[in-house]
Amino acid sequence: MPDHRHPLLFGAFLVPDAREPERTVALARTADTFGLDILGVQDHPYQPGFLDTWTLLSALARQTERLVLFPDVANVPLRPPAVLARAAATLDLLSGGRFELGLGAGGFPGGIAAMGGTERSPGESVDALAEAITVLRSLWTPGAPVHFAGKHYSLAGAQPGPPPAHPIGIWIGAYKPRLLALTGRLADGWIPSSGYAGPDQLPELAKVIDRAAEEAGRDPAEIRRWYNVGGTFSARPGGFLQGPPRIWVEQLTELALDQGISGFILAPGRAVESDLRRFAEEVAPAVRAAVAAARGTDTAVAAGTGAAGPADPQTDLAPSERTTGREPALDPATRPRAPRDPDAPSTAAGRAAAEALVYFHDNLRSELQQLGEVIEQVAAGHSDPASARSLINRMSMRQNYWTLGAFCASYCRVVTMHHTIEDQRMFVELRERDGDLGPVLDRLGEEHEVIAGVLTRLDRALVEMIGDPERLPAVRSEYDRLAELLLSHLTYEEEELLEPIGRLGITV
Asked: CA 189, CA 35: separation in Å to the nearest integer?
């Protein structure tokens, strides 16, 4: 499994201990203060000694400011997916888009049955989880009432909503072949635990995911991989994550570069606060630096840097991707227009689809603005460290650079995915139903290619900034260009396509 070059994230795995609820919340705040990225909470509703995971996550959404929160992983047999969809969207809204959804098929059938849940065979559990994912995504997508008839779950005209603050990722804790294949077909991420699958087992498990992804027409690199890990800081090296921080750094760096793991979530030992601090302050920055150096070597070669100094970062791009003045493909004056009839009747399904497209575009606009705000926070901290400590709760500037990199990479992934879906599905259907739209659809496809080039340059500028903070102006320049092009493109698309989508009842 190669390095897929996803941003590296580090986090904490929290036991929802009901004996010390205040300490449990305090540990989450500690992880947030230390600058970790993720907080996972295990979900075992049949355990009387545990706090309810969803109630706890709701409380932590108000007690933390930057951590990504997620159940690690949610017990789907005891959490009906239609209700789970609304709960997840609510948590995402309350946390400002900081929620991801980990799912499990239910590994303890006895405990599930004791709570009144359905006890299923392993095969049935996988099938039920696939249906649950369909239900979840249906209710997160604005549109008409949803009808779904599965063997295990069904919807009889359920209204979608509320829409989450961002596209929630679905992560699956999988180890067996059928569940691994389901992950490859349907999930956004895979989250195994070292206690169930050691580092030496990950490559074979990942092969099942990658093969299933390819068979489903997906790029395996789209599936992010986080790893729940446990270890002990000690003076002498031992096995996996047993030894001084340098051993941890070596082993986690190898997992990132050789096995594509981009998130490491630590279940701390007895010295909880001390372990989290060392993980955040000694291990995470060193792993990030080592991985950036490895990736930076490849980036430098690709960009043609050498002893004479950095080359033009655009020399290895196609002509259509270079920003030599205004890209012709996005000059508004040359955009074709299709015949429109503002009084043409629209179908109910078409109106819902048009509303959905505007909703997706508004999300892109909102997150683009947030990305700009984060860049300005970095810029303020770059020139005034004291101001940066106030703005980002005493995070180090190094951590702030990586936070920006993670946010930007996620945003670039969402934009690319949205454009790919439009090119492969919506545009094809529009072209088949209305031939007059051909020139407009051709132009929109060209603009997708141009925007993809800008996203590539922004990503490269961020990688270079990690190694050289003086490259920050290049990041701001590429962001400004992206904002100019993307906002113009979204408006043009809405002006030309909302009417035919509504009139023809096109699927979005």
From this structure: 22
